[in-house]
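Lab manual, section 2.4: Encoding a predicted structure.

Procedure: take the sequence of the chain (89 residues), apply the prediction step described in section 2.3, and record the output as structure tokens. A sample record is shown.
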Amino acid sequence: MSKILAVILARSGSKGVPNKNIRLLNLRPLVYYTLDIALGNDLIHTVCVSTNDTKIQDVVNKYSTNLKVAPFLRPENLSTDVSPTLPVI
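Recorded output:
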């Protein structure tokens, strides 16, 4: 069986909706919904959240039973509005 890695990109610094990834929607942070789908998918072997923010990292680790889901912080040079996706992954 193939091993599939899901990478969730959740940086801070949104200009349109500040702190959007940790803003509550129906009593849960927005990033929770993506994380929940990825963790609950039997086809996905590993989930990794790429973030540059300790608050997002803390929220992700709160809702995950595996603390390795957000094991590091992304460097600021890969967390801008124009950062390409491939180097972030």
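Check your result against the sample. The first strand starts at residue 4 and ends at 9.
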